Amino acid sequence: MTRQSVAMAHEKIQELAWEPLYHTPVSQYGTDYTFQKAKKKDPLKQVLRSYFPMQEEKDHRVYGAADGAIRGNMFRQVQERWLEWQKLFLSIIPLPEISAARAMPLLFNNVPNPELHNGQAIQMIDEVRHSTIQQNLKRLYMNNYIDPAGFNSSLRNFQNDYCGTIGRQFAEGFITGDAITAASIYLTIVAETAFTNTLFVAMPAEAAANGDYLLPTVFHSVQSDESRHISNGYATLLMALADEGNHQLLERDLRYAWWNNHRVVDAAIGTFIEYGTKDRRKDRESYAEMWRRWIYDDYYRSYLVPLEKYGLVIPHDLIEESWNQIWNKGYVHEVAQFFATGWLANYWRIDPMTDKDFEWFEYKYPGWYDKYGAWWENYSRLSTPNGHHPIVAEDVDYQYPHRCWTCMVPCLVREDMVMAEVDGQMRTYCHEACRWTDVEAFRPTYQGRETPNMGQLIGKREWETLYHGWNWADVVSDMGYVRDDGFTLVAQPHLNLDPKKMWNLDHMRRMGPLLSPNVVLNEMTPEEQQAFHADYIRGGPAGRPAPAEA
Amino acid sequence: MTTEVTAERSSPKPEFTDAEAGAKVFPDSTARRYNYYTPAKRKQSHYEDVTVEVQPDPRHYLAQGWLYGFADGRGGYPLTWTALKAWGVDRAEPERYPGSGGKGYEWPAHGWHEFRDPNEEWELTFYRNNSNVVRQINQNVETARQTKAFEQWNPNWVTFVERNVGAWMHVEHGLGLYVFANAQRRAPTNMHNNAISVNSMHRIRFAQDLALYNLTLSEEIPDFDGKAHVETWAEDPAWQGVRRVAEQLTAVDDWAEAVFAANVVFEPLVGELFRSQLVQQAAPGNGDFVTPTVVGAGEFDYASRDLRYTKAMFELLTNDKEFADHNKAVIGGWLEEWVPRCLVAARELQPIWSQPDAKPPRFEDGLDRAKSRFSGILSDLDLTDPKELTQ
Ligand SMILES: [Fe+2]
Ligand SMILES: [Fe+2]
User: Fold this and answer.
1) Does residue B250 lie in a domain region?
2) Distance A222 CA to ligand 1 centre (A)
3) Which key words are in the record (chain A) (predicted)?
4) What local confidence, expressed as pLDDT, does residue A196 receive?
5) Is ipTM strictly over 0.90?
6) Any idea what the CATH number is for the domain that residue B182 is in?
7) pLDDT tens digit string along A114-128?
8) Model pTM score
């Protein structure tokens, strides 16, 4: 900038806003929160005159690194195990990013503070930046990595895939429902402030350890915008806290947002970091260790707890329970095992675990081998077609799980599964907190209070139902998970690209039909449903069916 | 900084994996293009690759539908958020039920997905363009400051700039935030919403350019009143018509109407009238060669980029193979409302034409030029002049 200091420039642009006199801006997004007009300083004082060159400079570094990676043959050193999971991650993440952009206007009318709107508009364009820069990274992978399948179809496949769909809530939670619940609490206070550290800092470190230094370059560049967004959220949160009447809603929304983010983000990123890496140095941090540091210490202890004195009711129980899930109940391991069980309904390849991996898991998570070792040995054994079915249809002491209606991750920690009849349908939930989200939080009344602006859980929330009774060959064809020979599957439970070792439609054709667990459950009598539930919660860990009653 | 290394450093060891494109031949080994959409031209463009289908559509691949909805149960990006229609939209969304499968309609399913931003704006182009603009403005203003160019200004011109050029910053700011940033939540495709968000930032940036230029002038010109623009915008009768229309634009519910009214009606009849027919014409005669460069940057963004995508967007709709007539009728209704509003605003602005010492070309001549520019845009869009234009 010229001589003008950033502070003066920022002070000056505050003169731009004006009170409408003749017409008020249209109100399109409702909230049950109330805000008093209050002068709240935009904490970051960003002026576009300096913002644009700053971002352009960051871009130079990103695109310079991209050129360097290609010239330096980065892909000769990239671990396929890792990059395959990027087919999932990079298919999901551009939508949450762009949805964050779309979410910003939800705040304009509801948060009566023009000074914050400036920061929100900059966040909007930051998010356009993130979305397109990530699409571009994926394009580069597609063009330069050995196996483009799955990258080339990502935006189609992620929309109907069960893992992609789990991630999609991360986007849709930002843009619909109560405007403050969505664009402030879910998006900025929890998703960005708590979980972007694992997304954009922990994950890139793992990428680098697997020979990919482009992902870190792009995602650190993305993360460098995040502190501004976190400040936007914080300023809005303080305004919300100023009104006593919001406290009950804040408590509700923090519970929902926390638990949903834990369920969704820890499932995906936990799997990438623990099961997508070849780096098995004993001193590299496990996902649990990272979580403890980034999320428990940095977010929970340092960010959330100090807000208690302003009247924020913090979901201590759910935060401790999330840790309990990760540390004692094997949440990430259960998810990775499930993702691998369903490999045939995906669009990337999942590498089997080896003795070296087992050793690391046992070191980091004592007792891991007794729970999961045998199953992963079976996964290896069944990875290339040899007269048997994919693992999901073989007897490997694994009970295919029911899906959680709310977070859409299956009910993997079997003992926690709960059921509820909603709108004439019996639904399963992975945990009481997910039942509460659907049955109590996302409703037009909450604890006796009218909440007419609260959103709804909608959609066909488990994919299996759409394909109930179908042959597997038709399922994967319909979903578009077939390579350009019209025969070989995109997904494989191994990394061998020899066509003779790859699974194809003939292998799928001879499997039995796909049955939707939810359809089957709803065909049962109430007594049978209760018996089913009693049995289900005695199952696990590692998906083991309940032992026969003594 | 310490260089002493006490223990062996632990770091991952690079491994030769040969995971490079072309290392092996197998099904899909050469399938290196995004295969879920059809490009507008023969080849898929870089812009399309980073933009198309990021915002999903239940009629394509979103088999399970949107997962979260508003209180009324609607999720995503309802097509009914505008009265305009694109071919195919009246076909029902594919129904899903046990065993239905997940197939959607063939790409593009409906006409909304045919829109491409002719500016091909995405991250790389956007930051490059806008950085260039702010750098250019900085340099121009800085050079003017060093060469004492502001001392050449006629005294009345100083007042004109502090009040009137100053007042314009409010228009850009209000429309940037509450029309365009707002509208980018509401259009049916990512192509629309990204283009609209870029438009939003052009305006917010232009507003800030004018504000910071105003700040420089407060520092450089002894009697320059840096707050005069606030009072002018709030109270000057000449500006109340503009303010009324600007506020009314933020009150529009239909996103396409808001974008159309702002970029197709308001900008030519009011925005360009003020900027091109008055400021740019009057400045040199009053000794000012700097203001035109600042105002010109915003003018260029509008004329060469924002109007360009807007025309491409509405051209598709007025030529739609199914709904051209419907759309023209809806837009005709918009024109009947917005043209008189904008003409009133333009006429109320007339007194400021007489404020500079060195007089600009006559108001009526400027307005005639603005009107003919406007009707040229309408004819490009296959729309006819509304009778209100002759008022
Ligand atoms: Fe982002
Ligand atoms: Fe759940």
Assistant:
1) yes
2) 6
3) Monooxygenase, Oxidoreductase
4) 85
5) yes
6) 1.10.620.20
7) 889 999 999 999 999
8) 0.97
